[in-house]
Design brief:
CATH topology of the largest domain: Beta-Lactamase
Shape: globular
Largest sheet: 6 strands, antiparallel
Order of helices and strands: HHHEEHHEEEHHHEEEHH
Number of domains: 2
CATH superfamily of the largest domain: GAF domain
Helix content: 40-55%
Radius of gyration: 20 Å
């Protein structure tokens, strides 16, 4: 008598539905949820109804669905959110007050840049990043910092996936490797219109007492010009302040996205 292979669990199906959402697909219809999750429409309908009832999803008047408030509340319990973001918040505000630029705090999540926090105002350069969004490592200032200090296997995988975001995005592996070497040498990364046109960025690492880079701190401005030295100095002061705020008894890995993955 042959043994049947068990089908996908309820948990995996629910995760597939939630995973259908991303920064470019924030509102989805039932049909779109079914297509993007790979689940039958009937299964999608049943599970979505349960997720709406539980507050994990919310149904809009248009009939589309978005991530619900309960998922946000749970996400805020992540060490990335409650730990690093909380520690860094005063320093991000200091940088924003001094520059009125968009300020980013980011960590590496696999082969992507995960934006943990962002501050901006009416005079800030419009950018595509949002808190919780993920962008390619190779096209942003904070991403280049994180990639420059990533393990060799991560760098190798990233080099194999370079794609242009704008006409200015660096997609040549050799050129990018040279940039990453300068990041490690100079202590900061910079970009010009690689992710967003008419926007430049500059970023520095946040380094724990162990010497490990646990995050990147950056700003986005219309252009760098004569501001470069001043911005780098401000970012480095804030970066060191964040590092000093980490309790000595706390393993810095608990503040990174990799630690969150290990706990899931």
């Amino acid at each position: 008598m042959s043994r049947q292979t068990p089908g996908p669990s309820v948990t995996s199906r629910v995760l597939a539905l939630l995973g259908a959402f991303n920064e470019t697909h924030r509102a989805l219809s039932l049909t779109q949820l079914s297509q993007r999750s790979g689940l039958p429409l009937t299964t999608t309908h049943r599970l979505v109804a349960e997720l709406v009832a539980g507050g994990a999803l919310q149904r809009l008047n248009s009939g589309q669905y978005v991530i619900g408030r309960r998922m946000w509340d749970i996400g805020m319990l992540s060490p990335v959110q409650s730990g690093l973001r909380q520690l860094a918040s005063p320093f991000l505000h200091d940088i924003y007050v001094a520059t009125l630029a968009t300020v980013h705090l980011a960590v590496r999540d696999g082969l992507e840049t995960l934006y943990v926090d962002r501050l901006s105002g009416r005079k800030s350069v419009p950018v595509v990043s949002q808190i919780g969004s993920r962008l390619p490592l190779h096209a942003t200032g904070v991403g280049k910092v994180l990639l420059a200090h990533a393990p060799p296997d991560v760098q190798e995988q990233a080099m194999a996936q370079l794609r242009p975001i704008t006409a200015h995005t660096i997609t040549d592996p050799r050129q990018l490797q040279q940039q990453l070497a300068r990041v490690r040498r100079d202590g900061y990364a910079q970009t010009s219109e690689e992710m967003t046109l008419r926007a430049a960025s500059i970023a520095v690492p946040v380094t724990a007492v162990t010497g490990e880079v646990i995050a990147a701190l950056g700003v986005v401005v219309p252009r760098l010009d004569h501001q470069r030295s001043r911005l780098v100095a401000s970012l480095l002061v804030a970066s060191r302040g964040i590092a000093r705020s980490i309790p000595p008894t706390l393993d810095p890995l608990e503040l990174t996205s990799e630690a969150r993955d290990q706990q899931s």
